[in-house]
Amino acid sequence: MSKLSIELLIQKKLNSIPITMLTAYSYPLASIIDSAGVDIVLVGDSLANVVLGLKSTTSITMDQMLYHTKAVRRAIENSLLIADMPFKGYQINVNDSLNNAKRFIDEAGCDGVKVEWFNKCPDVVKKIASKGINVMAHIGLTPQTADQIGGFKVQGRDANSAKHLIEQALLLEDLGAFSIVLECVPDKLAKIITEKLKIPTIGIGAGANCDGQVLVTHDLLGLVKGFRPKFVKEYVNLHDQIKTAIDHFKEDVEKKQFPTKDFSYTMDEDEIKKIELG
Prior knowledge:
Elements: H1 6-14, E1 19-23, H2 27-35, E2 40-43, H3 47-50, H4 62-73, E3 80-84, H5 87-90, H6 97-106, E4 112-116, H7 121-129, E5 135-140, H8 159-174, E6 179-183, H9 187-196, E7 201-204, E8 212-215, H10 217-220, H11 238-254, H12 269-276
Parallel strand pairs: 1-2, 1-8, 2-3, 3-4, 4-5, 5-6, 6-7, 7-8
Helix pairs in contact: 8-9
């Protein structure tokens, strides 16, 4: 398997070959995802919620994102590695966006960065892409600014808001984005956007007509309990499996059934006698 490139990604769209994308925040999980042949590994700012226990993705810092991205980078051999630009890295001060994007490339070894739509998103994409840095854009439900778009709900359900999303997608393509994530938009709208764009669309809660699909891996694996969006398919319930394993460990230790001799190291009896004799 060869390293995926932006050019190969666009070829997949042209040839109607579905693109796969999953999140990773650590070396072990990134290694598994990469070895499975997933096209894109995203170090998402969902790291804030599913790993760091923060309530909002807006709380995560550049240093935290870079730290985890570096760990993921060490595991990647074939997948395209993209990192989310954290809210604090480009939305508070647009002038910081280029330098922070460069940090993901130079310090963390990313192949590109992802930015969510906000009122100055076109300026950010233009600034970063014009310097040769690959930019993946994100429209629809944008968690970093959810409070400004009515909360965590489907976007583009009426004609006016749908037209705005189409305009955003076309503009971002013109400004140099190599791909666009469509989150929580009606499937028919996602189909229209996908057909209008020359660059790939990656859907999350956007139906089957996008060029690719992404999920938060912790959701896919059933690692995090609590609210689960409609678009999440849980392929395995690791939360309960891990809990069961831990329960068994605790019981074995408390009953002195672990460790047995099979899990212990031995010492020659003559050496023990020497110790006992002083």
